[in-house]
Amino acid sequence: MQVAVVGLGKMGGALARHLLARDVRVTVWNRSRPAVEALVAQGARDAGDLSAVWAGSSAVCTFLSDDAAATSVLLGGAGLLASGPKGGLLLEHSTISPDASARIAEEALQRGVRYLRCPVSGNPEVLAAGKLGVIVSGDAADVELARPVLEQIGESVSYVGEGERARVVKLAVNALLAGTAELLAELVVLSEAWDIERSVLLGVLERSALGSPFIGYKRHAVVTRDYAATFTLSMLLKDLRLVRSAAESSGVVMPVTGLVERLASDGCDDGLGELDLMALLPHVQAMAGRPPDVAVGAREQEP
């Protein structure tokens, strides 16, 4: 099996390394060269340019940062789809809007490329451990064709229907992630105000009926005040804005999600955007007038 990976940021790079570790032949392409060179040193093949990405590949996987990056790389006369062979299989893993994804789907159809929306649930560490969840929508027959590749990528493959449904489900996952992170931050600040160590609170939460894998794998970082990013607060904010746009276009009101979006935006304004999404915690500490785990900008806090 040979798989191409286009976009070698944190998730795309992790995917390429994961596939190489499984003895999958991997072709790579990225807009900047250092990430390509690092993976070539680990055994990947350098596509050189987008037109060569498809050569010999069972599937092409794209992991791009946002709508603008995805449409820039995939669409147009110089885009990836322009050189896609009829029947070629494109697995698009980015977290992007349903609207941008629909534009990609339209061009894929015109080019005769099989297009599956395949956003994922998990971070680079989860991917490396083989525990990633893949959410898929598109033609059911194409999903079965892609299943051998998808099963190399993630532990679980959840087919949610045709069209852009996977995009909406992924946004729903990230909205719940954001709400959980914000509530966890608030509860840590509350418990410490009552002289309860955060390790004690997290231990109880993890063992409770409300425990989740997210609380489990964030426990060490929260206890040790480690804000090295697995998924940045600024990327979370980007996704919450996509949720709001999807909700507005369908006439759905999401007041709690809107509040979390505002809090994430305030945290980014306070200089926390490139830290892990749990930087919501020092933002809440600053709002409460308590010493924050990391420096928070001087912007006046709202009550």
Task: Give a short synopsis of this structure.
The chain has 12 helices and 9 strands. It has 303 residues and is of the alpha/beta class.
Description:
Helix 1 links the parallel strand 1 and strand 2 (25-29). The strands form two sheets. Strands 3-2-1-4-5-6 form a six-stranded parallel sheet, with helices on both faces. It has twelve helices and nine strands. It has helices at 10-21, 33-40, 67-74, 98-111, 124-128, 140-153, 165-193, 198-207, 213-224, 233-249, 255-272, 280-287; strands spanning 2-6, 25-29, 45-46, 59-62, 89-92, 114-117, 120-121, 133-136, 156-159. The protein is an alpha/beta fold and 303 residues long.
Set out the fold topology.
Elements: E1 2-6, H1 10-21, E2 25-29, H2 33-40, E3 45-46, E4 59-62, H3 67-74, E5 89-92, H4 98-111, E6 114-117, E7 120-121, H5 124-128, E8 133-136, H6 140-153, E9 156-159, H7 165-193, H8 198-207, H9 213-224, H10 233-249, H11 255-272, H12 280-287
Parallel strand pairs: 1-2, 1-4, 2-3, 4-5, 5-6, 8-9
Antiparallel strand pairs: 7-8
* Unreliably modeled segments: none
Summed up, the domain count is 2
- Quote the distance from N terminus to C terminus: 56 Å
Tally of helical segments: 12
Based on Cα principal axes, name the global outline. globular
Q: What is the name of the CATH topology of the largest domain?
A: Rossmann fold
Largest sheet: 6 strands, parallel
Query: Whole-number average pLDDT?
Result: 95
> What letter string, H or E per element, gives the SSE order?
EHEHEEHEHEEHEHEHHHHHH
Provide the β-strand percentage band: 5-15%
Report the top-level CATH class of the largest domain: Alpha Beta
The number of strands is: 9
State the share of residues found in helices, binned by percent.
40-55%
- Radius of gyration equals 20 Å
CATH superfamily of the largest domain: NAD(P)-binding Rossmann-like Domain
Structural class: alpha/beta
Instruction: Write out the strand line-up for the largest beta sheet, numbering strands in chain order.
Output: 3-2-1-4-5-6
Which CATH architecture of the largest domain? 3-Layer(aba) Sandwich
